[in-house]
Amino acid sequence: MNNAKSHYYQELTPDVVLDAVEQQGFVTSGHLLALNSYENRVYQIGLETGDFVIGKFYRHPRWSDDAILEEHQFTLEFAEQEIPVVAPLVNSEERSLFNHQGFRFALYPRCGGHRPDLETAESLKHIGRLLGRMHAVGRQRAFAQRPQLTVETFGHLAIKTLRDSALVPAEVTHNFFAAADALIEAIEQQMEALGSFPQQRLHGDFHAGNLLQNPEGLFVVDLDDCLMGPAVQDLWLLLDGEPDTMKQQLEPLLNGYETFAHFDISQLALIECLRGLRLLHYNAWIAKRWDDPTFPHHFPWFASPRHWEDQMIDLRQQMERLQNSPVIF
Question: Which residue of 148, 149, 297, 304 is most buried, as measured by CB atoms within 10 A?
């Protein structure tokens, strides 16, 4: 679908959004505010009562219905355990995933707030306690429909997506893919040497942007990327990149975490592998959505030679980090 005008999200007009919400028994005021979201379309919708709901309209065909429902069930498990997450609203028929004019969507209560402070030990300890509670629940069963975080899914498939996309300019193609292939080979070798780690249900994208702090406390949002993987995946995105700083942050984070769940310290050796996989996965994520007009608009630099030259340098630097990463704990 190369013609931007044909992209299916262009059919998601304000009237369609409001009609979808009213289909679920709400009376809307006409207020509609698009929120910052690239993967899906997310709106704040005003109600005649003066309240608001958040409507999340899922990108087709990224997830199957069953995979979305697994995300919802995972979030609702947290809510049942009084873990502060923003969970989808469930109607009288115990449904949380709806369909209107071909658009699948879920509704959420509005939860305001700001990014939490990651500078103080007490804040990191608080986040660690929250994550430990989440992981204690996540270990109780496995996903059946969500992906696994592996070198294949986040590395090899990402490189294939980029090769197939034709978005990497010809003048940097050879050097970029040489750096990507070398990094993946090194990650594979290191992960094989470290051996297998238990896979569990994870948030998958647990960074400060998916946490909200408000007067009522700290809340977790957006489990759209939940998957099976090693527990450290939900910790390392909270850390700065330098080893000394990471160690300072890890101490209170793990102190809080282990109040509720054991953490295998040996998993810290995976951090640089996971960082490398994320570099590749992120670029492939943009490439796969390039036919969506919002992506060229918000990422205009993505198809430029300069971007791919910078990415090649980042991949080479990540190779050095991988080969020289010290023990940080």
Answer: 149
